[in-house]
Pre-mRNA-splicing factor 38
Amino acid sequence: MANRTVKDANSIHGTNPQYLVEKIIRTRIYDSRYWKEECFALSAELLVDKAMALRVIGGVFGGNIKPTPFLCLVLKMLQIQPEKDIIVEFIKQDEFKYVRALGAFYLRLVYGSLDCYKYLEPLLNDYRKLRFMDRSGVYQLSHMDEFIDILLRDERFCDIILPRMQKRWVHEANNELDGRVSLLEDDLDDLESESDEEEMLAPPPRPRTEVPDPTRPAARDDRHGRGHSPSRRSPQRDMRNEREREKRNPAGHHPHHHRERGRGDHRHPERIEKEHGGKERNRERERERGEPGERKEKHHRSGRSKRDKNSRADLEIAEANALRAKLGMPPLVP
């Protein structure tokens, strides 16, 4: 008796209102604890208090398919079939968002497409957050406008198949609904008017004039042939300068013989060979002994290995002395 639809209830879409919920899910709801404890002998007046206590929307969840309190209250509303005025008040109130979601879902199940467009489309301007529980029992964040958009567009929600709806343009063609007006159209019109005013008040663009860069070298005029560069020297001039230099300093004698002339070296060949051989010998010795950094690294490595060996030996001696002390034997002498 507790699970039967009321006697004076009207058939919805040609069937029992409770049959809008599938039989498997309906059976799970009847066996749930929330249905037996909270929904027993529930009237339309007491339904408001239960709806105000809702904190999540969703269908069934978990491996054993538990129904949410939201789904249990939807089935209870299908069973007792409250008046349309109560459902409209659920939708129009602004304080309790889950009560509004419950009324919107019941309206989408029971009433026709014209009433759904009339009462649910204004809720698309409600952007409050809603908690939604998925099939795995995890809470997800949603919004009221997303919830209403799903009710108007999708065929299944909260594990319940939603009845088919007539397209909106059909009602507009039959003059049953006016064209949908979005709240964003006024803002778009204001933005377009502001952009037009800015274009009218904007000054005309000035012609672009090129400013010469003082750091940039001036372009060379090649119309009358390639110019002579001051840095370019002719080979005849170089030969003439070389002859004059030889006349001033005959036999390769230079007054400042202690300086290097150009790239040449005017020192004695034996002295040069001696210095060269000494440097080579020094390099070979350094190579045999190794680089200074390598010698330091080897020295540090050898010292570190010695310290490690000493510490390891001390640790072994300490462990052996502890064991000998437990056995009453004299300690080892390090």
